[in-house]
What does this fold into?
Amino acid sequence: MAGERYRPREIEPKWQRYWASEGVYRTQSEADQPKYYVLEMLPYPSGVLHMGHVRNYTIGDALARYKRMRGFRVLHPMGWDSFGLPAENAAIKHGQDPRDWTRSNISEMKRQLHSFGFSYDWECEISSCEPEYYRWNQWFFLRMWEKGLAYRRKAAVNWCPECATVLANEQVVDGCCWRHEGTPVQQQEREQWFFKTTAYADELLDSLEDLQGGWPDRVLAMQRNWIGRSAGTEVDFALEGDGDLIRVFTTRVDTIFGATCLILAPLHPLVQRFGFGDRGQEMATAAATKSPDDLEKEGFFTGRFAVNPYSGRRVPIWVGNFVVMGYGTGAIMAVPAHDQRDFEFCRKHGIDVVPVIRPADGPLAQSGSISEAYCDYGVVENSGKFSGLESAAAIDTMGALAEAKGFGKAAVTYRLRDWGVSRQRYWGTPIPMVHCPSCGVVPVAERDLPVLLPANVSLTGTGESPLKAVAEFVRVNCPRCAGPAERESDTMDTFVDSSWYFYRYADARNDGAPYAARKARAWFPIDQYIGGVEHAVLHLIYCRFFTKVMRDLGLVEWDEPVLRLFTQGMVIRDGRKMSKNLGNVVSPEALVEKYGSDTARMFSLFAAPPDRDLDWQDDGVEGMWRFLSRVHRLVRDSLARCSGPSGQPRCRADRACLRKLHQTIDHVTADFESRWHFNTSIASIMELTNALRARERALTDGVLHECLRRLAQLLGPFAPHLAEELWHVLGGHGPLLAATWPIADPELARENSVQVAIQINGKLRHRLTVPKGLPKRELSARARKTERIGALLAGKTVRRVIEIPDRLVNFVAN
RNA sequence: GCUGGAGUGGCGGAAUUGGCAGACGCACUGGACUCAAAAUCCAGCGCCCUUUACCGGGCAUGAGGGUUCGACUCCCUCCUCCAGCACCA
It folds into this structure.
């Protein structure tokens, strides 16, 4: 290497080949070592690696490498979330087969990942669009069907009348079709498949507590919010005229004597029965396309009445656009005096306002003088025998009465709904079900899995799932009666694929089961999961749900798949998220081309702590390139004059550099073990480099050599190619990853003198260099003896002296 | 509206339990090397006052208050920005 410049384009491929030939990334399965499963969220194979990927995988790779060097056996896999809409869109746009498109994207992205030298064990690679993988989606579906956790019911889908096709939620933008701006998406009812996530709502919520500390607070908060547990009361109002009941859900049953009408959601079944179906449809569509802020509270009277079971009061039944069918019972009692939304609605439509709650320390409001609802708890009034109770007590008492009399009960409602997994799409896992005219819905026999996704399917929209038009796919014999039947043509949501993929990594080539229990046990739970916060709810709830279902199916013995979750920040450039649409992307490929992947990795770790947003600056990348070049040059120049690893420390410079070295080892190690502030790890490695560069000529050969070797090791997790190069140049044997991580020696790291701040009344007045550990009295005595402090304290009375050894002295004086 | 997070030089960011604010890097300025440029190396670099210079002083971590010998850090009030959820009954 003597005389050569830092040339990553030569170094990096060289060591990538070396790592491959040495098999250094192979997962050790039987070794007698503690395990560590580090997992990064698997990418969708768009074909292009972006900076967000690079940041994510660089963090994971640094950790995986560090853990290996700490003696763990590490599982660090990678795969492809390869079903999904983009492949289908590409097919429609360019006439390309989704399978070909996806596979070529995968090989392209894999090439890019390789160019970064990430330490993945590619033996574990999975791709969810391959039958070897998705057959197990089908297998899980059947297990869930058997348990009643997969079921079918009617639900609304998004329908674009222009495309004449069903839209995925992500194809709906502001209530309109993504391709036909201005065309409102219609809601159509269809039979669809659901997973019963609500059966686990309580547990999904409760076990969030176990994740506390290991998961970011904001993710826990988002999940809590998403599950949205709300305790209240269900009350049945009797429909006047026939004996039918209208059930409402309320968290404030204590206000029920103030209920002056019922309001139904526009899509409530009764609305149709009362003859207002079309009007309701219209209202629902109008409401769906507007944001809550600028939606006026519209509604109409149905002409019908219902009876309040508590008060016997007869109240009108209205339909209101702010009541949604999907939450609670789709019907509410309106208490305008004590709910702001109800107040606005009732005032607008001339409905009575009846106050029944007064503040604990104030009078009941006069119904005519109310200008906004009083929503706090208080004391119940004008409510028959409940008058005089505190709100909380009234809620309990009134709930108990309802239950005793049979017109209601305490109830818990969730925002979380069952997971709709049906997609009227081609590029997904076929749902393994058959519709038989005589047997009904029948599961495909397990031995007939996988239900293969047919090739060469026409994707031009007919309005149905593209599979519906494939006769040889649809036409089957009923698995039960063998009569002619029809195969289910919906495919599964791709979130199903990613809900259990990490189990498959543990046993990726198993063709008799999703994985062998023994192998999963060897790796689970996942020690560290790393990914973007955009998956805080959907993916990260679904995968928790799956593990709980798998546990109840006897497939795993733990409750949660992920012990620790880390969510990295976004990559920002020019003040905005890096994205193709904004035209502010930096291509990782171009970076590797220009500076090498080590520079890109180092910069992405150095520019910000990993959990915060990263502000991308091209100048900063340049600076990192210069740093790595300096390290390279330092080693090259040192080797030219250093005779080798011999010689004991003997001079001041030796001791200073060894001290810096061990402080750096300590710092970097501590960062890995706790905070993951790799920006400061790298800063400290820079300081070490600066110290070595400044003293290089003064150092004893042995010390210089030792420092450089350790420097290479410290760089290993962050800039693995350069580190490997230096390691070998410095005489290291075998791959750097196989070398043991250095341990800081506290004796060598110890400073023997420190600068102490001398303050007078809290203001810095002097600095004093003293031996480390100098005891308190002596510290202030020395400070007083200095000319400067002596002069400043002359004529003053020192009232108090604060002494913190090795840090500061503060004279409180006047 | 609710929930979570963040406000520190020209910029990205340091400051592990309250103890010298601004580590490290970028940008910038000056110098060395060079015929010249690039690269590299050396030095300086929060703001204001003072000074020929050295020295010295004051002000500064979104704003205001509090606790403390001492606050970027703890407490209270408020402002701004980002993210997620949202007529959720």
Remarks:
- The radius of gyration of chain A is 34 Å.
- Chain A has 27 helices and 34 strands.
